[in-house]
Amino acid sequence: MEQTSFTPDLLKEGGDEFSDITLRPLDLSDIDDFMVWATDAKVTRFCSWEPYSNKEDALNYIKKSVLPHPWFKAVCLNNRPIGAVSVTKNSGNDICRGELGYVLASQYWGKGIATKAVKLVAKTIFTEWPHLERLEALVDVQNAGSQRVLEKAGFEREGVLRKYLILKGKSRDMVMFSLLSTDPQI
């Protein structure tokens, strides 16, 4: 596959400018695109991981964590990865729940792309995983952009979980969002 220069101006003018937003498996050949967002401190600010500083570590992450993951997809614009989205399933008594996570290159923030990607997940995950009844997402209280993404995608804000987890050395308040398999799809 030939790589071409890729910038936000490739977004379509008029109509449904994000009709070319798709989800597909992330592959090792996507490493250069992956590095765009995975090395950006703005992107990883609210993530559990630090920015990658070299391709070797990023390739190892893709090999060991992404490829074996049961539901990890690249968020693509014109089939070029600009972010990622995953659903992690629970087990045992919690098998009915899955946790949504997503990340997007900062140059694409505020354009509705993350919302479109989350809607694509919501449209398919309950069919692909029929045991799943609830898709949930935990968002840092300071991450207003991600909260808007989930609200626009039809998730319900359930409340704030105070001092819920340690993120980058500090205890953080998290907002719980959920979408049920029986909720209307937006």
Automatic annotation (TrEMBL):
Its domain of life?
A: Eukaryota
- Name the InterPro entries on file: Acyl_CoA_acyltransferase, GNAT_dom
Q: In what residue span(s) does the N-acetyltransferase domain sit?
A: 21-173
GO molecular-function term, one example from the UniProt record: acyltransferase activity, transferring groups other than amino-acyl groups
Q: Specify the protein name.
A: N-acetyltransferase domain-containing protein
